[in-house]
Amino acid sequence: MEPLLKTYYKRYLSEVRRLKPSTVKHYCDALNNITRHLQGMKMIEGSIYDILDLHQLKDLRTILFADPSFIAQNKKGNQMYSAGLNNYVKFAEGTNLLGLHHDVAKLDMPMPVRTEEPRHYEAKHWARSDILREQTLAVADYHCEMDGRHQTFVAERTHKPYMESHHAITIHLQSRFSYSLDVYANLICLCPVCHRKIHYGLRDERREMLYEIYEKRHERLAHSGITMGKEEFADLILAD
Ligand SMILES: [Zn+2]
Ligand SMILES: [Zn+2]
To answer: Are residues 209 and 140 in the same domain?
Structure first.
């Protein structure tokens, strides 16, 4: 069965962008070529369309675009491979779908999509403790650590104000550190708005938040084996 994202992408190119079948084929051929290239590099097993994680897709692109044999091939092909992948990434991240509104129904499959067998993910994840998360909230007395006055709502589960725990230095940077990032010193209790903001807010505003967290936590982080300067701390997190 064709991967779902491949079908959607083809429908997007033909039904929404209204490209000629030959152009659609061009785009798809470029991605098939990229699939083979990434397989050759042992970066993926299935096709590029089987990647369901945007972060991973973008990481693969970065790696591919730095690969000498890909660079050479892409040059020969007048950059059509890189253009094809860039277009697909724009589709994947939704940039290409802005303002689609009622046209989105054109992407719907003509037939209901059968479910696949549940997939087994072999990817490794750094373990993070739910217990620590819960404790972080209690330790902060269910107050947002950016500003204790931030209001949320009462959570059914705890009958306490709803709060979220956040890793100041994200766990997926663990491989760069010799000591665990899943420690109290690195965990912060945030209200949901501050939590979304620290992940998705404007860069400058996120930097300000990170400086504040650094001031409050750098000594405890150092005790936990995580030593760095303020700028280094902010840059590391913002670059991710
Ligand atoms: Zn977080
Ligand atoms: Zn807050």
So the answer is: yes
The domain containing residue 77 runs over which residues?
A: 4-107
Answer yes or no: is 54 within a domain.
yes
Residue among 52, 44, 41, 45 nearest 8 (CA) = 52
3-state secondary structure of 71: helix
Does a structural domain hold residue 153? Answer: yes
Q: Which residue has the tokens 């860039």?
A: 86
Which ligand sits nearest to residue 145's alpha carbon?
2
Q: Is residue 116 one of the residues assigned to a domain?
A: no
Residue 112 lies in a domain: no
How far is ligand 1, taken at its centre, from the CA of residue 119, in Å? 26
> Could you tell me if 43 and 101 lie in one domain?
yes
Q: Tell me how many domains the chain contains.
A: 2
Considering every ligand atom, which ligand is closest to the CA of 162? 2
Condensed to tens digits (0 to 9), the pLDDT of residues 131-158 reads 888 889 988 889 999 999 999 999 998 8
CA of 150 to the centre of ligand 2 (A): 5
Cα 132 to Cα 135, 191, 208: the distances in Å are 5, 17, 26
Which ligand is nearest the CA of 166, by number?
A: 1
Place of tokens 């994680």: 53
Q: For 41-84, how does the pLDDT look when each residue is reduced to its tens digit (9 = 90+)?
A: 999 999 999 888 888 899 999 999 999 999 999 999 999 999 99
Q: What is the Å distance from ligand 2's center to 224 Cα?
A: 25
Q: Kindly identify the ligand whose nearest atom is closest to the C-alpha of 169.
A: 1
